[in-house]
Amino acid sequence: MAPDQNDRSAYDDGNVFARIIRGEIPCDKVAESAHSLAFRDIDPQTPTHVLVIPKGAYVSSDDFSAQASDAEIADFFRLLGQVARTLGAVEPGYRIVANHGADAHQEVPHFHMHIFAGTDLGRMIKPVEKQT
Ligand code: AMP
């Protein structure tokens, strides 16, 4: 059965981002703030591909938006914006993505947002066939 994304006891302390936060495995750090960390994706999908994560134990965007403090949420989005500016991605543009759960193919069960930049990213997501 898929883990309940709202069950905080479902947070897996052994996930790769938890291990990065604890310093058990390295990351290519871009920036850090009181509650958040930004580092380059190990398997970049675009010329610039950075992940922003909260340091707190949140499984997903649903968990983070419901359970994180205002300070953590503000810190997260401040750092995300700062990183995009530092990367020079504000012009000509960038995309932020958070995958939540099975349908979005979330692989790492620690909330993160992707910053994609450095190329024309096309329009939105690949269209799916209409259901009949
Ligand atoms: P998602 O499908 O949204 O859960 O994406 C997880 C992302 O984490 C993928 O883009 C992976 O390439 C990335 N990733 C996995 N392990 C590491 C790691 N050790 N350092 C940096 N990025 C990683």
Briefly say what this structure is.
By secondary structure, the protein is of the alpha+beta class. The protein has three helices and five strands, in the order αβββααββ. The chain has a five-stranded antiparallel β-sheet, covered by helices on one side.
Quick one: CATH superfamily?
A: HIT-like
Q: Helicity level, as a percent range?
A: 10-25%
Number of domains: 1
Classification by helices and strands:
alpha+beta
In spatial order, strands of the major sheet run 1-2-3-5-4
What characterizes the major β-sheet? 5 strands, antiparallel
The fraction of residues assigned to DSSP E strands is 15-25%
The CATH class name reads Alpha Beta
What's the β-strand tally? 5
Order of helices and strands: HEEEHHEE
Q: Uncertain runs with pLDDT below 50, 5 residues or more?
A: none
Give the CATH architecture. Answer: 2-Layer Sandwich
The Rg value, from CA coordinates, equals 15 Å
- CATH overall fold name: HIT family, subunit A
The chain-level mean pLDDT equals: 92
Bound molecules: adenosine monophosphate
Number of helices: 3
Distance between the termini: 28 Å
Task: Characterize the overall form.
Answer: globular
Supply the key terms:
HIT family, subunit A, binds adenosine monophosphate, 19% strand, five-stranded antiparallel sheet, 3 helices
What do these coordinates show?
Helices cover 23% and strands 19% of the residues. By secondary structure, the protein is α+β, with helices and mostly antiparallel strands. The chain starts with 15 loop residues before the first helix and ends in a 15-residue tail after the last strand. The protein has helices spanning 16-21, 61-67, 70-86; strands spanning 29-32, 36-40, 48-54, 94-97, 113-117. Strands 1-2-3-5-4 form a 5-stranded antiparallel sheet, with helices on one face. It has a single domain (8-117), classed as HIT-like (HIT family, subunit A). Adenosine monophosphate (AMP) is lined by residues 16, 27, 41-43, 51, 99, 105-108.
